[in-house]
Amino acid sequence: MEGQSIRSLIVDDDKAIGEVLKELVSGEHTSVDVLTDGFEAVQFVKKQPVDIVITDLMLPGVGGLEVLRQAKVTNPHVVVIIITGHASLETAMEAVREGAYDYIKKPFKLEEMGIAFNNAVERVHLVRENKRLLGALKTANDQLGIVKKEKNKSRQEEGPSPRKIGHLNFFSSNLPSLGFLEGPEIDERNFVKDLQSLSGLRKEGLLTEGEFKALKAHLMKAMATHE
Q1: Neighbouring C-alpha atoms within 13 Å toward the C-beta of 167
Q2: 69-122: pLDDT as tens digits
Q3: Which domains does the chain have, with CATH numbers?
Q4: Cα(66)–Cα(43) distance, rounded to whole angstroms?
Q5: Number of Cβ atoms within 10 Å of the Cβ of 8
Q6: Which residue of 92, 190, 199, 204 sits 20 to 30 Å from the alpha carbon of 35, by its own alpha carbon?
Q7: Which of 165, 146, 163 is nearest to 154 (CA)?
Q8: What is the 8-class DSSP label of residue 206?
């Protein structure tokens, strides 16, 4: 996932700042476009989604918040870093409410922007990995659903399994037909053995909890009568 290219857009009305930022964030797996006009930036992100946007808040044409909003339309997971020389608590909170990932005040150090951009890259990788895992999970669930359908179809064609038939008919037969619960002698050793057999049938799904308790009570009554 980390080898996949990250598309970035820098929007600043100061062309020199834009070029410096481009040099800062460009990398082996990162493509960077630089624009100086907010309206152009909006048109740009309308045509193609980008992963990271670094935009000035105050721009010619339309503002950085509008660039943010449109970038979110074409890619809801876009990571947006807002930069401005007119910072205030109100504008910062508005940018965050609109979905800004980070907010940097001018003048800023290149190291500060480098850290913010690297964090944004990590965020993009995390979102992509989550998408990949969700896709793999969906594929696995779809395949499991197909397997279950095929199994159900096979069972319908073959009819009930012997185990299921045994369960359905279990109480329709007499208790002595189980092969235990009675015999020439009922002692403590046979009682334990028969109880273990009943427990095994319950674990295999041939006995419900209610049936197990009923048969266990029958065993205990037979043992008490013998004593």
Answers
A1: 16
A2: 999 999 999 999 998 876 566 777 788 888 999 988 888 899 999 999 999 999
A3: 6-134 (3.40.50.2300), 162-226 (no CATH)
A4: 11
A5: 26
A6: 92
A7: 146
A8: S
Decide: 67 and 95 in contact? Cβ < 8 Å.
no
Kindly state the DSSP code that residue 172 receives in the 8-state scheme: G
Please list the alpha-helical segments (H only) found in the chain. 15-25, 38-47, 64-74, 89-97, 110-158, 162-168, 188-203, 209-226
Query: Distance between the two ends of the chain, CA-based, in angstroms?
Result: 73
User: Is 70 exceeded by the pLDDT of residue 184?
Assistant: no
Beta carbons of 22 and 32 less than 8 angstroms apart: yes
Cα–Cα distance measured from residue 135 to residue 3, given in angstroms and rounded to the nearest whole number: 19
Report the percent of the chain where pLDDT is more than 70: 61
* 70 HSE (CA, 13 A, CB side): 18
